[in-house]
Amino acid sequence: QKEVEQNSGPLSVPEGAIASLNCTYSDRGSQSFFWYRQYSGKSPELIMSIYSNGDKEDGRFTAQLNKASQYVSLLIRDSQPSDSATYLCAVTDVGAGGTSYGKLTFGQGTILTVHP
Amino acid sequence: EAQVTQNPRYLITVTGKKLTVTCSQNMNHEYMSWYRQDPGLGLRQIYYSMNVEVTDKGDVPEGYKVSRKEKRNFPLILESPSPNQTSLYFCASSWKGPSFAEQYFGPGTRLTVT
User: Fold this and answer.
1) How many beta-carbon contacts under 8 Å exist across A and B?
2) Which residues, other chains included, contact B76 with Cβ-Cβ below 8 Å and sequence gap of 6+?
3) B26-71 pLDDT, tens per residue?
4) Model confidence at B2: pLDDT above 70
5) Does A7 lie at the interface with B, CB-CB under 8 angstroms?
6) Fewer CB within 10 A of the end CB, N or C, for chain B?
């Protein structure tokens, strides 16, 4: 069974700092990677997807993927108290050019707290 | 408004009493999925469906059934609930193809089985 590992935290950073969230996965066949954010008592929402090695930036968020080392990370620049949430890493073996779909495997999530 | 809805939002039931949690989406999505979320275990996929009448098992299908008779609906059935199925359940939907994992989640159903 595929495994996706995250440090459960909590990770505490001061407002304005960079928060770094990491995720490792066991299946070398994994192709596509996602970061979801889940506020307490709410449902997960997608914030980033990354399909190829390297960095992908979207506003204050940067996703980094290294398939050789089997890790994916999420950087949040200029962290705000509103970023306080649980961040879930998710992995699938369906690639960006694929036409099928299937299982999505989540890590257990990292709790991030941004304090003023 | 594009959304995924689940009913009921909260349910307390007893062991062995059959129940159904409904899920409906209004985005014409092909892909739908059910997850359960437990402390320390994250989200685990129960079943997913790629289209009408097409379903497949996720990582934790034991004790659950699903059906997909209409594109918009994907009910989760617990025929004989047990206390270890006490959990927070999420339904999700998405488009087909490589972005199937970019999913929209419903608000969740908190189930307690006594």
Assistant:
1) 73
2) B20, B21, B23, B34, B46, B47, B64, B65, B66, B89, B91
3) 999 999 999 999 988 889 999 999 899 999 999 999 999 999 999 9
4) yes
5) no
6) N
